[in-house]
Design goal:
about 325 residues, mainly alpha
Length: about 325
């Protein structure tokens, strides 16, 4: 009985040793483990080029964004010729300064005829000669930018459909330059002309921000420039841009609608003293003429005009929202 027990235990021990040490080689488990180990060691080496490519692309995009930010910082104080082109005027500097001189001389002559004094006449001439032309430049620039924003999202959609249909980007831009309305048509025609003289299309699109200093134009130039340098799906990027442009347009319309009540109140408050002054002058001119016939009245009138200007400026800052 003891012999059978010893034989059974010995056979069990030998079978266990064979199972642990010999069976893995016979069944191929060792080869499988060795192959998995080789694959695990090779995986980091295989992913390293991908990581390097993604890192280099990210660094390239970051460098492009820094360059664009530096350009936009330098373009905050444009010269007079750039301001004239942004307003949609083809005037030269000489013509603009000549217009300033004519307005100043005309205002001085009119104020001198009305006999309000030399100092007020000079002040009105300075305001008409220096303030009015630059105010008109700002007004024309803002109106041109508003027209551009109304048409630009539709132009981007046309470019997206052209790219999805298989057209090159340049042909899509030519389509906008031929069929869009102003000022989008003129700006895209300038992009095509700039590209025709040898400038890359990405750099040509970036110059759109120089003539239309709007975030929307800057977004478009950045998207096209990054796609030209780093690659990617241009139609998808422009689709996202189009959605952003339309969302910004809706937000701007909502802000204007919400601020119209404040603008109407500011207009009434700002025009009320002038209206009352005019009504008093119509009813009893001898009573209010002391303001511009007496020295103390002129001083009071100047102080009132100064404080009214400060109040209008403060109200304008309060009701104009930048986003």
């Amino acid at each position: 009985m003891n012999a059978y027990a010893v034989f059974f235990l010995a056979a069990l021990a030998i079978g266990g040793v064979v199972w642990v040490f010999i069976y893995p080689y016979m069944s191929g488990e060792k080869k499988s483990e060795r192959r998995m180990a080789n694959v695990a060691r090779a995986t980091p080496m295989a992913t390293r080029p991908t990581r390097q490519v993604s890192r280099s692309r990210r660094e390239q995009i970051e460098g492009t964004l820094k360059e664009l930010e530096e350009r936009s910082r330098k373009a905050k104080r444009p010269p007079l010729s750039v301001r004239l082109s942004r307003a949609g005027l083809d005037w030269s500097k000489r013509r603009f300064f000549l217009t300033m001189g004519i307005l100043a001389a005309g205002a001085f002559v009119v104020m001198s005829i009305s006999r309000i004094g030399a100092v007020p006449a000079i002040a009105f001439a300075f305001a008409a000669g220096c303030g009015l032309p630059f105010w008109m430049l700002g007004f024309l620039k803002k109106r041109r930018e508003g027209k551009f924003l109304n048409v630009f999202p539709d132009a981007v959609d046309v470019i997206i459909r052209g790219i999805k249909a298989g057209l090159p980007l340049l042909d899509s831009l030519k389509l906008i330059a031929a069929e869009a309305s102003e000022p989008v048509r003129g700006e895209f025609r300038s992009i095509i002309d700039t590209q025709a003289i040898g400038l890359p299309i990405g750099e040509a699109c970036l110059r759109l921000y120089e003539s239309i200093p709007l975030p929307e134009a800057n977004f478009f130039g950045i998207v096209v420039s990054i796609q030209q340098r780093a690659g990617g799906n241009l139609s998808e990027a422009l689709t996202n841009l189009s959605r952003v442009l339309r969302d910004r347009k809706k937000m701007k319309a909502k802000i204007q609608a919400m601020s119209m009540e404040a603008k109407a109140s500011a207009t009434i408050i700002g025009s009320l003293p002038i209206v009352v002054m005019g009504l008093v002058w119509l009813t009893s001119p001898s009573y209010i003429e002391l303001l511009w016939t007496e020295p103390m009245g002129r001083i009071m009138l100047g102080c009132c005009a100064l404080w009214m200007s400060v109040g209008i400026f403060v109200m304008r800052k309060m009701i104009n929202f930048d986003f």
